Amino acid sequence: MRRHPERAAYDRTTIDAILDEGLVGHVGFVSDGEPYVMPMLYARLRDTLYLHGSPKSRLLGAAGHRAPVCFTVTLLDGLVLARSAFRHSLNYRSVVVLGRARAVRDPDEKQLALRTLVDHVMSGRSDEVRGPSDPELKVTEVVALGLREASAKARSGPPADNPNDLSLPVWAGVLPLGLSVGEPVPEGRCQVPEPAGLREYRRDRA
Description:
Elements: E1 8-9, H1 12-21, E2 24-31, E3 34-45, E4 48-53, H2 58-64, E5 68-81, E6 89-100, E7 102-103, H3 107-121, H4 134-138, E8 141-146, E9 149-155, E10 173-176, H5 196-204
Antiparallel strand pairs: 1-9, 2-3, 2-5, 3-4, 4-8, 5-6, 5-10, 6-9, 7-8
């Protein structure tokens, strides 16, 4: 970490916590000589990230050739508003993972990965819904990426204003940001009461 190395962390406790809180990551790779960055649903199971994609995805082609990829997750915690434009910033937590992805071909690992992905979106959800059928498995691809080379970076706290700017008549501070959960909107034909897992999810993120 070259820029602001004091914000870096390499311990798995910090890295895992950020990955487990996020929902969407971005994976960068090169295919046919062209760079691509794609948003993607992901989930962590111990030392492996599972990424969910389409069989026609360029990422799957790259993974099939064990191409190097860069996967990132960023959680935005606040807007840092300073007295000068130069000192404005963001409070955030982020993870970067480097490695060579592989397509998951083992049926048992694929089933486990898909359960992990569903439960990452909402804990316990895979026990409530029908699992994927064989035809559905065939049209769903999963990519695995190890966490051997991963780092975290974070910023927190107030703006770092220049001492000469402290007397300026400008509001300075932090505007906190976070993911909010609204009222559930049931599908029109749904007659099943709201499950306990959904209530817990709303409560935990209230």
